[in-house]
Design brief:
21 strands, 22 helices, Serine Threonine Protein Phosphatase 5, Tetratricopeptide repeat, 6-stranded mixed β-sheet, 3 domains, alpha+beta, Nonspecific Lipid-transfer Protein, Chain A, about 40% helix, 8-stranded mixed β-sheet, Metallo-beta-lactamase, Chain A, about 15% strand
């Protein structure tokens, strides 16, 4: 169905914003263009089969002033993020931007290059390396550094390195302690739910353009190629730990539990350059990402930034990260880090202050005010995270979902609650009438709330679907936050055109393959349909021949428990195979060779019979 133009209410709100923020400040545009060497032309990356995994050309509409359908502050950010190509940060450090959600950095060493954060996909990382080599020479990769455990910082590793070269010691892979466990668990344990919601978050199914997806604030969108993972050969464990990699000295600062559960910053004395991973970027980041994750700790986050300023600020000529553009100059770099530090500290401290005065998360989110210096700092604007949802996340971190009001302790679930609201208001037609009035007055938040109740009462009611889609669209046009815009537009798209599922899955085979046996069984336990397994009482011994370990797996009371222990004759059945063959078996391959079953085969069949995979197309905007 066709999209609608912005209403006069949204046009006026966007015009007002132009007068309230310092759009005359163009320093970011100078920094984003500084050191430019060459662009990939055309900015399209394909996979081996000819499919497009990255289409930078689809953002060519990003030029000039903001159209009425895009918040002008978000438009400004998208113009900056869309700058693509190879850039020199300082002589010896080069960065390719605009070929994925994140950036890849190349540090020239004595005999080759150190690669920092090889993007999401094999194909985009390979294209970035080729662009670098075209202009800087065919230098070999001697090391790869993962700054943290999110897929956009390791997934493209096979585009710059091979497992064989790592195994032979020709390439070192460096990461913070705990990297593999967190990288794997985040993408597998809740991967189906996160992947579905990530489709909304990054606007993966949306058309690009002034009425559609214009970016995600942190980057434009995610690539859709092959995701890989090579296990690190060196774990960084302590702040101040220093290593020399092919002649380049690197000092590391640990930052676990900040933007990622395993994360680190590092400093290059030779270049007077500080890499801040993803803890300092040109946006307010997420305390709780809308795709879903554990709530992050803004108090620790700000403390790590304070430590980075103290340890490295005065001796850094440039601060760079794996998103956005660098900040040059010692004084400017320190000021930038202080603003980033202050926004997280302020949100944390003021949320707790107001929480301790009795305010709830939504109340704090509506009333909190930022200091003028932070309100007008472009790097602290809410393009990816937002003050609103970050405040609610901080409240959740300390207090949980319940706000303490007993009337809200045991509400009906959404569908049952919706039916009662709609009946109390006077029926579907009356609710839609009120929602239309709210829409006409420009109160899109209230219109969306009313229509949400109708959808969860009768999802087939076409006038409601049409009006809610129009309402979400207007909320999108006014959003400064790129992720909010994408969520609103994705909801409108599904109401009009149907469920688009999960465009890109986070639990790629190469990531799943790194599951430890304990993680593998833990993920298995998450897929047991409890009620169907209530009456089962079984034990299965599993021997992994490639790892030379044995596990006893039991299923009782709908709970799957695994323990490493020697096999014996008390289990109902036994299974002997490699870990990869186990993954294939759990994926449905029972017939291929490589599996030895002992005892009663019905035990394995009973276990497999109660496993229930996730649904990558579950409903979000309707019941």
């Amino acid at each position: 169905m066709p999209q609608k133009p912005p209403t006069s209410h949204i046009e006026e709100a966007n015009r007002r914003l132009l007068a309230t923020l310092p759009f005359h400040d163009v320093q970011d545009f100078e920094d984003a263009q500084r050191g430019f060497i060459a662009a990939l032309d055309p900015a399209i990356v394909k996979d081996a089969a000819g499919g497009t995994v990255w289409d930078g050309e689809s953002y060519n509409f990003l030029t000039g002033d903001a159209p009425a359908s895009v918040n002008p502050s978000l438009w400004r950010q998208s113009l900056l993020v869309n700058k693509q190509g190879l850039f020199e940060i300082v002589e010896g450090i080069y960065q390719v931007r605009g070929l994925d959600l994140s950036h890849i950095t190349f540090v020239e060493s004595d005999s080759g290059i150190i690669v920092i954060d090889p993007l999401i996909s094999t194909e985009t990382a390979a294209a970035a390396l080729a662009l670098y080599r075209e202009h800087r020479g065919d230098r070999k990769v001697v090391a790869v550094i993962y700054t943290h455990s999110h897929a956009d910082h390791f997934g493209g590793v096979f585009g710059v390195a091979s497992q064989a070269d790592v195994d032979a010691g020709r390439i070192q892979v460096i990461a913070p302690e705990g990297f593999v466990a967190h990288a794997v668990s985040e993408n597998v344990f809740a991967g189906t739910a996160m992947g579905r919601r990530a489709g909304y978050m990054y606007g993966a199914a949306l058309a690009r353009g002034p009425l559609g997806q214009v970016g995600a604030g942190l980057g434009q969108t995610t690539s859709t190629g092959e995701v890989g993972l090579i296990v690190p050969t060196l774990d960084i464990r302590t702040t101040g730990e220093t290593h020399v990699v092919d002649g380049i000295e690197i000092e590391f600062q640990m930052a676990p539990g900040s933007e990622a559960p395993a994360e680190m910053h590092f400093y290059f004395p030779k270049f007077r350059a500080l890499c801040m991973a993803e803890n300092a970027s040109h946006t307010l980041h997420n305390i709780l990402t809308l795709r879903g994750a554990l709530v992050r700790d803004p108090n620790m986050w700000s403390a790590y930034l304070t430590e980075a300023i103290a340890r490295y600020g005065a001796k850094s000529d440039v601060v760079f990260a794996s998103h956005h553009w660098p900040t040059w100059g010692t004084e400017r770099g320190i000021a930038y880090l202080r603003e980033q530090r202050d926004i997280y500290a302020y949100l944390h401290d003021q949320t707790l202050r107001m929480m301790n005065q009795g305010f709830t998360g939504p109340e704090i989110a509506e009333t909190i005010q930022l200091p003028p210096a932070l309100e007008n700092a472009w790097n602290a604007r809410g393009y990816y995270g937002s003050v609103s949802h970050n405040v609610k996340a901080i409240y959740q971190r300390y207090m949980g979902w319940f706000d303490g009001n007993p009337a809200r302790l045991w509400p009906h679930p959404p569908a049952e609650q919706a039916q009662r609201y709609v009946a109390a208001i006077g029926g579907v037609d009356r609710v839609v009438e009120l929602a239309q009035a709210a829409f006409d007055e420009g109160d899109y938040r209230w219109a969306a709330t009313l229509l949400d109740h109708v959808i969860f009462t009768d999802a087939t009611h076409q006038p409601t679907r049409d009006l809610l889609a129009d309402t979400l669209e207007q909320l999108a046009y006014g959003s400064e936050n790129g992720v909010w815009r994408n969520f609103f537009l994705s909801g409108a798209t599904e109401l009009r055109d149907g469920n688009f599922g999960t465009p890109a899955s986070p639990n790629a085979p190469a990531v799943v393959a790194q599951l430890s046996p304990q993680q593998l069984f833990a993920s298995l336990a998450l897929s047991v349909n409890g009620p169907r397994a209530w009456d089962l009482d079984l034990a299965l011994d599993v021997t992994f021949t490639d790892l030379d370990v044995n596990y006893r797996v039991t299923l009782r009371n709908g709970v799957l428990i695994s323990q490493q222990q020697p096999t014996d004759d008390t289990a109902g059945a036994s299974l002997t195979l490699t870990k990869l063959r186990m993954l294939a078996l759990l994926g449905g391959d029972l017939a291929s060779p490589g599996v030895e079953i002992g005892g009663d085969p019905a035990v394995l069949q009973s276990l497999l019979g109660v496993l229930e995979p996730g649904n990558p197309a579950f409903n979000i905007v309707e019941p």
